[in-house]
Amino acid sequence: MAGSYTKDMMHEEVKERLEKGEVLHIIDVREPEEWESGHIPSAKPMPLGALSLRHGELDRKQPYIVVCRSGNRSGLACELLEQLGYDVTNMTGGMSQWGGEVARG
Question: Which residues contact 32 (CB under 8 A, 6 or more apart)?
Answer without folding.
Answer: 45, 47
